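Please describe our next protein:
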Amino acid sequence: MAIFYRGSGIGTYWHINDPIENGFAARAPGMTSTINRLMFHIARSTVNSPYISITRSYAVAWRYAMSSSVRVPTANEPAYVHEIEIQEPLPQNLELLDPVKEVVKALPSPTSIGPPYQHDGFPDFLLGIVDPRNMGHFLEKHSMQPPSSEGTPRTPNLTIELETLVRALRDAEILAHGNIPANSIKNRFDVYY
């Protein structure tokens, strides 16, 4: 048995349509599961996908519920964190994907032609990927070049692969491909400030 969480902010689809009754379903369940769709789902927040984002972290789900709310959650009007318990064997037509493992399988070799997934900036460049709203200035710091180089100043390389890996780790994210049945949703916690 594994425990996962999903936050539902006030005004969001899953706040209005309680998944305790019908379970969680992806917005586009008929789409084919591909590595590109997986990366766009995580790195670009593309919700029109065949995936449902869940997390191992109650804190991440809480933060999502609070930040995605159209109004400030209160005791009288709370946001929700749903607790999801998934047993093995998995329910029929449900697959759980670890996005880090999926992306790693698709990465090119270190000697391949084309941009590597690694960045070429300062170590704090990753902070900008983790928290672009508050630390986005780290994304804009020019990439340092060797002294003999007369290249044009530029920001470091940021590939969708790196962005996906960092955000999946930041959010302790797992993707469900298929429906999460209602009987897997064990609790709905009211959350507010």
In short: The mean pLDDT is 95.
